[in-house]
Amino acid sequence: MLSSRPQMLELLHDAELTPESLYRELTDDMNRSVRVEELVYLAADRVPGLVPTRAEIDTELQLPLAEKTGIQLAQALLISEFLSLPREGIHLCMASLEPTQLALDHLDEFLSIGAVDFGPVRVERRGAAGWLELSNPKHLNAEDETTLPFTEAAVDLITLDPEIQIGIFRGGLVEHPRHGSIRVFGSGINLTHLYYGRVGFLFYIVRDLSYVNKLYRGLIGPEPDAEHENLWMAVVERFAVGGACQLLHTMDHVIGVRGARLFLPARKEGIIPGVSPLRLPRSVGDRAARQAILSGREWTVGDADAELLCDEAVDPDDLEDAIAARVDALTDPGLVSAVANRRAMRIGAEPLDIFRQYMAEFSIAQAHCHLSPALVKNLEMNWNAGSRRV
């Protein structure tokens, strides 16, 4: 399996292809949208040896992280090459902004009764608000392969519902040994599943190209030339760690319970915290962002410096009233003006082409982190991963 860009280009040359011509062939000259997780397997069938097949990846995912063979690096190299192409890369980004088939299969149900329970994720319409509740209680509402498709489908449903003007992202109840049932916004990537090899490299790419980017940019389709977008609000209880903290960069409003911790433990984990290196400096400034990503700086809701990440700090007893008041305030002017202003702010802050370029670099860099022995060491040293069980 290829492990370098020159090897990849040589294999493509032998097949009388370039990255551009391969992408165009696999997408019918960009007349068909193909998500990245499907694209890599189409490429595997078209050019044997270029990237691993689905069967090879299925076998790889049975191995603990320390025993991975490294074949996922080939996927990263090809994805990076596609994303590095300006037109093709934008086309690939936009493919992941279309609603998933899972969401479309449940759309009539959601529009009819206003609720869908996917298990790990529940979605419900309450007036002008759509509530998304992430529920992975065994792992403190961490994200992994079991939550990702349902989270994206829930984002799709909320965004496609014409009655909903604002989405609310909240963590579900978990059982705490000392505090009983409590809500936790999220603990980031499931480090236990990561250590035991159940989180593949594609998880990082799919997550940020799809539902996280949909929170930030809205949806395209399913009807031709249609765009769907609404406001999003996060309700942070207890903590927002890693990937959960990354979500705050995409939100239009963040309400947090006083004392909740916000941090990106990238230094201790040994992976890149999604798109935070691109987005976090816009919120807290370059120096604070470097402190957070490189040195583990944390923020606590209620402290003055946390105001750059959290718009409102409230006491637990006042939380529900604060949510209701903010929903009323954000939806009162009407959806059109709110979304128009949201889009206007995004144009200068992060054009889609800047995101494309970031993801092209992120693909390779994250693959090297994911497959590094240092990641295994970090998980054992900072997470006691070897003593935990899936």
Explain the overall architecture.
The protein has a 7-stranded mixed β-sheet, sandwiched between helices. The model has no long low-confidence stretch (mean pLDDT 95). By secondary structure, it is an alpha/beta fold. Helix 7 crosses helix 8. The chain has 19 helices and 14 strands.
Tell me briefly what this model is.
This protein is of the alpha/beta class and 390 residues long. The protein has 19 helices and 14 strands. 49% of the residues lie in helices and 14% in strands.
Helices and strands in order, then pairings?
Blueprint: H1 5-14, H2 19-26, H3 36-46, H4 54-60, H5 72-84, H6 86-95, H7 101-113, E1 115-117, E2 121-126, E3 129-134, H8 148-160, E4 166-171, E5 173-176, E6 180-183, H9 191-195, H10 201-209, H11 211-217, E7 219-220, E8 227-228, E9 231-236, E10 239-241, H12 243-248, E11 253-257, E12 261-263, H13 266-269, H14 276-284, H15 286-295, E13 298-300, E14 312-314, H16 319-331, H17 335-349, H18 352-370, H19 373-383
Parallel strand pairs: 3-4, 4-9, 9-11, 10-12, 11-14
Antiparallel strand pairs: 1-2, 2-3, 5-6, 7-8, 12-13
- Label the structural class: alpha/beta
- What CATH calls the topology of the largest domain is 2-enoyl-CoA Hydratase, Chain A, domain 1
Largest sheet: 7 strands, mixed
Biggest sheet strand line-up: 1-2-3-4-9-11-14
Question: Span between N and C termini?
Answer: 30 Å
The helix content, as a percent range, equals 40-55%
Q: Work out the helix count.
A: 19
- Mind telling me which CATH architecture of the largest domain this is? Alpha-Beta Complex
Instruction: Give the number of domains.
Output: 2
Mean pLDDT: 95
Fourth-level CATH superfamily of the largest domain: 2-enoyl-CoA Hydratase, Chain A, domain 1
Could you list the spans in which at least 5 consecutive residues all have pLDDT below 50?
none
Q: What Rg, in angstroms, do the CA atoms define?
A: 21 Å
- CATH class category of the largest domain: Alpha Beta
